[in-house]
Amino acid sequence: MLIKVTINGQARQIDAEPDMPLLWILRDELKLTGTKFGCGVALCGACTVNLDGEVVRSCQIQAKSLEGRSVTTIEGADDKVASAVKAAWMKLDVAQCGYCQSGQIMSAIGLLSQIPMPTDDDIDKSMDGNVCRCATYHRIRAAIHEAAKAL
């Protein structure tokens, strides 16, 4: 099945099976490996991307639903919100092992795009489902507040 989709601002035509997850299109077909495989059932958040302005788990989005849509991955996240989030992550040394961080960052970008000055409760609700095995949750929350201030 030939699919026309915009990935990180670039129009693409991808030949994929209709039920192939977006995650595998990104990683295997397009070699965009910043989006990670974690659980495959949308419970960990490692595969989080932006689809038409919405935060989604790419392991659960099938190729057949991508026609004419727009996907932003960690590699393409470069607007002012993304820049503020990435700068805050670096400033506060959020990452420990780093495996979950692309999903964490994409979720944080989605949150700050919707709620420019989130409360701790907003952050907890928005980031729920993004698992960090290193338990850097307090640094993640602090970095989101730091990014909000910078914006």
Q: Can you tell me about this structure?
A:
The longest helix has 14 residues, at 101-114. The chain has five helices and five strands, in the order E-E-H-E-E-E-H-H-H-H. Helix content is 37%, strand content 15%. Strands 2-1-5-3-4 form a five-stranded mixed sheet, with helices on both faces. The model has no long low-confidence stretch (mean pLDDT 97). With 151 residues, it is α+β, with helices and mostly antiparallel strands. The chain has helices spanning 22-29, 80-91, 101-114, 120-127, 137-150; strands spanning 2-7, 10-15, 48-51, 54-57, 70-72.
Can I get a quick summary?
This protein has 151 residues and is of the alpha+beta class. It has helices at residues 22-29, 80-91, 101-114, 120-127, 137-150, and strands at 2-7, 10-15, 48-51, 54-57, 70-72. It is globular.
